[in-house]
Amino acid sequence: MGDERVRDVVIIGGGAVGATLARALSRFHLDVALLEWQAEVAFGVSKANSGIVHSAMHASPDTLKGRLEYPGNLGWRQLHDELGFGLNNVGEVLVALDDEQLVRIEQIRQQGIRKGIPGTQAWTAERTLHAQPNLTREVKGAVWAPTACVFNPYEAVMLVADVARRNGVTIAEEQRVVGIDPPDVEDPDTPLTVRTETDVWRGRFVINAAGLFADDIAEFAGVRDFEILPRKGEEYLLDKRLAGIVSSIIFPCPSPVSKGTLVNPTVDGTIMVGPTAQTVDDKFDTSTTEEGAAQVFTNARKLVPTISERDIIAEFAGLRPVSDTEDFVVGPTERRGFINAAGIQSPGLTGAPALADLLVDILADEGLELEEKADWEPTAPHPVRFNQLATEDQQELARRDPRYAHLICRCEIITEAEVRDAMDRGAHTLDGLKFRTRVGMGRCQGGFCTWGCMQLLAEHQGIPIPEVTKRGAGTWIVCDRDDHPVTTARTGG
After folding, report:
1. What is the pTM of this model?
2. Is the predicted pLDDT of residue 490 greater than 60, yes or no?
3. pLDDT grade, residue 178 (50/70/90)?
4. Range of the domain at 208
5. Distances, alpha carbon 241 to alpha carbons 235, 236, 271, 311, in Å
């Protein structure tokens, strides 16, 4: 897919930072390419987290992540209005269980006030339990922050990337970077050459938004001066029968390394508990463990005593790309044209839209000319959410298009029309469909709908069913008649 032409900007990494930057740059007359090493955008750090747009109280204003937190919060709200991904303004309740924690949470509230966060309140124990009656009776008080939201980060990132693509950005997936050519000593203005396993990409500027692997990419460029220390967080999704047990994100008083175990209502009606915070050496270790589950549920029950492991319907772990600086690593480097956007740990997801704007400013300062397009389109048709419509609207849709009368996913009430729309927007794996539509995310976890999704994916791509994968190369679901996975250039089978 790469070619010999020199692009204005090559972005390495198709997560929240890379996608929001690609969309921001698509406003201008620029040739931009976004490279993602996995099968689809948002398949890395951006898909495995608590799905929270933070209130912006927690991070210190003396850090870059703290300064970007509230502008990023506002940015996601605007993107929600423009793109139509699910986002619920549920607010945050930061709980204290003793007098010492009361002092600490008030310090956090005052920090939020200094950052301009509106609407925070100090609540008594009585006020807290009135708002959240299922909390422990050990509550001493709480801080209320109305600015916190929950959303599906993978859905949001995929829609953001879709708008970038519609506005001319090249989205290139399965592009694992293996090297960046050394500079021409005789001509320091020579474009940077990024080599992947299959292609070569050349750019005047290269943005390193590679998440867990940002330090490796910096090393390829010869400017590695930080380390990424993966911090694993295990999360557990609970059955929808618990919907309403809490109506806001419930935070404990935080520790020095973590915001602690949260209990939060997801945008889709399930309850999520987690995460853990364990530094690991393996950047591919996304395992869940008995020890992690025990830690999560022990801590969750300190806040909401009726939480139980018996209600788990799914579990996963994500890795946060924590830098050894404990802050974002953002800005130009000694390698001309190579710009870092690394170490984007929590609240990096929240800050991503603001970080994208900062990177645009940095590119302009480094000499990139920014001429706005007269025909830039910031929005795209909003995905239909059939299960959220009134019965009369569902019936009208089904009359107009029979594909809305065909249910693919019974648990989540997802129709064939929604699945086909997701494929038209770029989904070509089972996980790509799941993250765009929630197909397979219900109580049966794909037991009913997987085969129907595989049939639709095979039809849409013109491939046999054994070539359909869960999330790209090596994740085939069924074998051919000889019991061997089919190998293809696209998926690796």
Report:
1. 0.93
2. no
3. very high
4. 1-87+150-227+324-382
5. 18, 15, 9, 9
